[in-house]
Amino acid sequence: MLEIKNINARLGGFWLKNISLELEPGDYLTVLGLSGAGKTVLLEVLAGLVKPEAGEIFLNGKDISHQSIQKRPFGLVYQDMALFPHMPVWKNIAYALKGNGLSGQQQQDKALELARLTQVEHLLDRHPGTLSGGEAQRVALARTLASDPEVLLLDEPLASLDVKLRQELRELLKKINQSGKTIIHVTHDPMEAATLSKKIAIIEKGELIQWGKPEDVFRNPVSEFVARFSGIKNIFLCGFKKSFEKNGLYHGLTKNNITISCLDEPGKETAHLMIPGEDIIVSEEKLETSAINQYEGIINELYFLNHGVELIIDAGEIFSVIVSKRSVEKLGLDPGKKVWLSFKASAVKIL
Amino acid sequence: MLKDWRTQLVIIFFSGFILLFIVAPIAGLLLRTSPAEYATTIQDREVISSIGLTLFASMGATIIFGILSVPLAYILARKNFPLKGLINGIIDVPVVIPHSAAGIALLGVISRGTWVGQAGEAAGISFVGGVAGIVVAMAFVSLPFAINAARDGFAAVPEKLEKAALNLGASPQRVFFSISLPLAKRSVISGLVMMWARGLSEFGAVIIIAYHPMITPILIWERFTSFGLSYARPVAAIFILVCLAIFITMRVLSGKRYHVRN
């Protein structure tokens, strides 16, 4: 079990403030954040390359906060791979094996085993400068795995890869994680996080904003930043007044004077309201339903996604609505068409 | 377009002038020396032993002092500490002071009256009027070339590679010898070659410390002042050819550059 307690660290202009996390063995944590949020600094603190100003790191109950870099069981794969340019691939992979009691033959065998796992066995005699991005990333992974770390730290491992290579490497990372290796993976791509992780942590300006299971974080974002960063649309800043509370509902007014009703008390005069695109119903006529929020609008744009169709509808505010392809055909949902949007007050979340 | 042509012509003219300025005197010296003069000079034992001594002393200075300076170059490239700027300035001092003055300064440290000189004498090493003194004088004036080149070479090695090696379990010593030094090798060797070459040409500091045994620059000067230009020129030509041959060979052998992928 990995416990990170109140880590504070500074590297150049980057700050980490009071980062606390807990991971079970075999967990896959994705750390999400914008560039400069402090994600890489967190990895370097864990690897021992940056000394924290405060805080502790426990691995399996043992305090490793002051353990030397060499003795920490954390293997770091840098975003730009940091392969040793003067060594062929096999020497890069075998670097960590030297001096750990293995004979030359055993080192070669182990390097070959890892090269097979990462599918780089045909590249062993090549130098890093001649490898493609995907090949270099696999070599970097094999080199780090050679040190047999308990926790694998990955800094944007899929960032520079094309779609096909990204998919292949994603599968490899899943395979490595399924073999029992704990992985902490830094990225700025919410999709990457959603497809790989068992847990997600979101960092903004060096602070841990939210962490937990991906479905919990994405369904219940604690702030506008988390919601927007998670790719969630339909977030509206609304003004509330005492008189806006009626019949157990709270009515917020957007800047374009659209009233949105919700069940939860906003607790302050302005709040961000969020409506998941999947929870909005589109119809040709106004519906007689329990949905309190109903607006007439015009379809502006239409995007075909893997899991459905996104409609961009102007109803005074711009709404993003996810519908099925069948609904698009059935209702003839094309740009320019007038439609009605409806969603229940219980679908509205306060951030 | 016309403007571009004019600019290009100016650049070509300036560059050609600078290259000619370097090449012309050397080419003139080499071409104005007749084959007979070359043949006679090559058989002159005084010239040959002088060239041998110069090569040996400069090589000795490079091996001893150049290699000793590599850790300092690494620290200057990697660490930040108080007075680092001052240390960088001190390293360049031998380049900016007159070399005869450097010889006088060195004499104050290694002459027989000093404890360094006396310790040397006790160990059978004579600095003043000896090869050891020539080595020290050459090292003093040429060390900045080795240190500066090595420091720049180490600074150009991405720190991330060293961190990656540490993370893979390597000791700092192993990281230095397996990552930092091999990647900075070209700059380190280039600096050592420059140090050696600069040592070969040293005159001012050496003549103060050791007129004899005579290194080639002093021999050339002595022949010029005693016998005239026609006696000094063949020695200078031979010495230049030897230096160029070794210099070019070492630059070619100093290894290839590696590019860190990003």
List the helices and strands and how they pair.
The complex is a heterodimer of chains A (351) and B (262).
Chain A: E1 2-11, E2 14-23, E3 28-32, H1 39-47, E4 54-59, E5 62-63, E6 74-77, H2 89-94, H3 104-117, H4 133-146, E7 151-155, H5 163-178, E8 182-187, H6 190-196, E9 199-204, E10 207-212, H7 214-219, H8 224-229, E11 235-239, E12 245-246, E13 249-253, E14 259-262, E15 270-274, E16 281-283, E17 293-305, E18 308-314, E19 318-323, H9 325-331, E20 338-343, E21 349-350
Parallel strand pairs in A: 3-8, 3-9, 6-7, 7-8
Antiparallel strand pairs in A: 1-2, 1-4, 4-5, 9-10, 11-15, 12-13, 13-14, 15-21, 16-20, 17-18, 17-20, 18-19
Chain B: H1 2-32, H2 35-42, H3 45-68, H4 70-78, H5 84-96, H6 99-110, H7 115-122, H8 131-156, H9 159-167, H10 172-200, H11 204-209, H12 216-227, H13 229-253
Helix pairs in contact in B: 2-13, 3-8, 3-10, 4-8, 5-8, 6-8, 8-10, 9-10, 10-13, 12-13
Structure notes:
The complex is a heterodimer of chains A (351) and B (262). In chain A, helix 3 packs across helix 4. In chain A, strand 18 and strand 19 form a beta hairpin. Chain A has 9 helices and 21 strands. Chain A has 351 residues and is α+β, with helices and mostly antiparallel strands. In chain A, 24% of the residues lie in helices and 34% in strands. With 262 residues, chain B is mostly helical. Chain B has 2 domains: 32 residues; 217 residues, MetI-like (MetI-like fold, Orthogonal Bundle), CATH 1.10.3720.10. Helices cover 81% and strands 0% of the residues of chain B. Chain B is built from 13 helices and no strands. In chain B, helix 2 packs across helix 13, helix 3 packs antiparallel against helix 10 and helix 8 packs across helix 10. In chain B, 37% of the residues are buried. The model of chain B has no long low-confidence stretch (mean pLDDT 92). Chains A and B meet through strand 6 and helix 4 of A and helix 9 and helix 10 of B.
